[in-house]
Amino acid sequence: MTHTIKKVFAVIFMAIFGSVLLYNCEPDPDTLGEQLFLGDAAQGKVDSMDVTAFTIKNYDSIRSDAAKLDSAVLGAFKEDQFGMQRASYLTQLRLSTYNPDFGANAVVDSVVLVIKPEYSVDSLKTTTNEDYIYPDGNVAAKKVVNTYPVKKFGKAKRTLNIKVYEVLDFLKGASDSVKSNQVFAYNTSNIGSKTFDGNINSVTITKDSDNSSIFTSSAPGIRINLDKTLFQNKIIAKKGQPELQDASNFIRHFRGLRIAVDENDGYLFRFIPNSTELIMYYKYDKTDNGTTTRTSANYAFVLGVGNAHIGQYEYDRTGSAYSTAALGDFDTGAPKLFAQGMGGPSIGIKFPPETVDRLKQLYQNNKAAIISAKIRLYTDPVSWNNSYTKPKNLTFLQIDQDGNKKLTSAFTVDALNLAAAPNFKIYQAYNLNKNPAYYDFTVTKSVKDIVEGSGYNKNKYFRIDIGRFLVNDAGTGLKGQSFTSRAYSLHRAVFVGSNTTDSKKAQLRIIYGTK
After folding, report:
1. What residues does 43 pair with on adjacent strands?
2. Which end of the chain is more exposed for a tag (fewer CB within 10 A), N or C?
3. What is the pLDDT confidence band of residue 103, given thresholds at 50, 70 and 90?
4. Under 8 Å CB-to-CB from 265, ≥6 apart: which residues?
């Protein structure tokens, strides 16, 4: 059974990665139902039918612990449809070696936190200073700075004030479940700050005398100087004491860092939690042959695997369209649909009884064979007429609801049964650079099961989230339907729903053949 599931996930992996190809023309019919045609007597016909589409309110909360954060988000962004969304990041830190020996009379020179956001490689700018003087020893040198713009979602030309705080609450274990709206106490006096203009850089410094390297940064990043006195007292001064003896003691002694922005509007950007660095630079007395010299050294803390990582998200929906919109429900639907990553709303779609009856009559009375069935959604050309990047990564699941309203999610029967078929795609996105864009979600097998058998379940619906399914560590398939990038997806969009006369309302589009 396990082997079968792995094979299914591997096939779905190929199907999903094929699903994000973009086209600017009408899609061709699927080949999934062609075997139902007999000779040349069949001909394809297109029909559109109503669906019930509604917004699922997720109460601005989502699991955002280390198990869910392949990427972390920082920043803030405010717009009229969804309101304000602000993202902070919390992390534990650990010692790279326990019971460390920093040498005699060690004194901290500086402490640098490095965050490495996603950036545009093809927008490099290089600045060279041939007359640079390296301050430690006043060394004549050359300084080369490579600058890249960070990939942002929101208002790109804004400045953010990034601040770092010491966490006061224990952040739990790395495997514990944490929600994005959970509050952890922190010291409100920041221990470091940075005015961020949206660009990151890497730095190389070489001596003029022999061209040898003095300093080379590991990768482009945001470098934030932290309070060296705090690290002198919490780290250097604790040499040989229980606080530095093991991991359990240390993560309760130094409970973590909170990284946040002051602003409530600007942009959001992502970085990989496990790539973050924290380096303490210090000097100590080194004695050789009776001679004592002050010697430079550095100590790298561990901020990656094994630590608790938490995405903390705040929302202010006041005055937004979402705050007053009719979200609809399982039975009524709504004229507008709202979808947003990071715990924002999702979209639900079901087939109403009237559509099911019409499908069955088409099958029974006209002997129609379903070739292709798609749920089509358009972005709202008025409400979402802006320059923000439209989402291209979505997840599409089927949800079953039992009599006690307990929900069970799974890959759709189309994904599980038809992923190996030629040209199969879970969904396709069209016209992402235009207004409106639209999306087609494949439900061919789901519809065929309804019209040709007893596949209709009034408590079943489809769920669409902003984000993508995650690939397993081996890169051979998907982790599963519950592993997605939704917890750190920056995107959002307003779509045309149902229960409206809009010509671009949510619809079931079928292509069928008759004798």
Report:
1. 514
2. N
3. very high
4. 76, 77, 78, 84, 154, 155, 158
Over 421-460, what HEC string results? CCCCCCEEEECCCCCCCEEEEECHHHHHHHHHCCCCCCCE
Buried/exposed code over 192-219 (b: 16+ C-beta within 10 A; e: otherwise): bebebebebbbebbbeeeeeeebeebee
Res. 34: pLDDT tops 80: no
Length of the chain: 515
- Distance CA(257)–CA(187), nearest Å, equals 10
Q: Given strand 407-411, what is the order of strands in its sheet?
A: 52-56, 346-350, 460-466, 394-401, 407-411
Burial class from Cβ neighbours inside 10 Å (0-12, 13-18, 19+) for residue 444 reads buried
Q: Which range among 134-148, 334-348, 401-415, 442-456 shows the weakest confidence by mean pLDDT?
A: 401-415
**Residue that has been written with the tokens 């060394």 in this structure:** 139
| Residue 60 structure tokens | 């601005």
CA atoms of 424 and 426, how far apart (whole Å): 7
CA distance 225 to 88: 18
> Which two tokens mark 308?
């608790």
